[in-house]
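lol forgot to send this yesterday, sorry. struct tokens for the thing we talked abt
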């Protein structure tokens, strides 16, 4: 753990909070301990990342709208990305796991590593304060923010799908609402629906594909899923 903190240029004030941040619930359950595990800190860490990564994106891309900035943030803080960062920091080697979790490869499990990364960021925030936590997160995420391919954001349907899938297996579908105009100049209207029941937005276009893209774009601008 000391090596991990040195890599992040952290001199701890309270070592116990970092131990808690790296302690998986499986260890607590197996050893019947009454102290904390990483789950509460994970909750805090998610909020810390959302705030600071949003701030980096906001400053780096002054011309992007809300939906486009949300797409970048979603890509950077989803489980796959956080797992990759956790592996780069060798967080898996520092985890305190129960025997069963250890035996089944918990140190390499994507969701465990992503959760541990979030909990570690929360521990840094609590132990070191706002400014130091921001410096750590900026050092990790600013290169990633700068390397985002903005042109890749133009496929609104794909990006909306990415955001939705990052949010606990939700689904989206596109439903044709109407077709107006003439056969040579049709106007299609589609709505994009979340989980089969919530209409996120409605779009129009001269083709079905164009109307669906318009609906996805409006959904992204309307809400950060």
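and heres what i got for the seq, position by position
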């Amino acid at each position: 753990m000391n090596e991990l903190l040195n890599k992040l240029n952290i001199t701890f004030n309270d070592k116990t909070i970092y131990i808690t941040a790296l302690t998986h619930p499986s260890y607590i359950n197996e050893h019947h301990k009454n102290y904390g595990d990483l789950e509460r800190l994970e909750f805090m860490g998610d909020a810390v990342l959302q705030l600071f990564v949003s701030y980096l994106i906001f400053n780096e891309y002054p011309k992007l709208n809300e939906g486009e900035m949300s797409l970048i943030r979603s890509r950077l803080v989803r489980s796959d990305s956080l797992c990759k960062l956790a592996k780069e920091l060798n967080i898996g080697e520092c985890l305190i796991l129960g025997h069963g979790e250890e035996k089944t490869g918990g140190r390499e499990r994507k969701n465990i590593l992503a959760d541990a990364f979030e909990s570690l960021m929360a521990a840094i925030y609590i132990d070191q304060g706002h400014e130091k936590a921001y410096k750590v997160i900026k050092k990790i995420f600013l290169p990633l923010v700068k390397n985002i391919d903005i042109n890749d954001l133009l496929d609104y349907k794909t990006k909306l799908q990415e955001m939705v899938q990052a949010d606990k297996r939700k689904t989206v579908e596109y439903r044709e609402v109407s077709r107006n105009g003439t056969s040579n100049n049709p106007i299609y209207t589609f709505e994009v629906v979340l989980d089969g029941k919530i209409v996120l937005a409605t779009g129009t276009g001269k083709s079905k594909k164009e109307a669906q893209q318009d609906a996805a774009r409006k959904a992204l601008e309307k809400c950060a899923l």
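The mean pLDDT is 88. anyway ping me if u want another try
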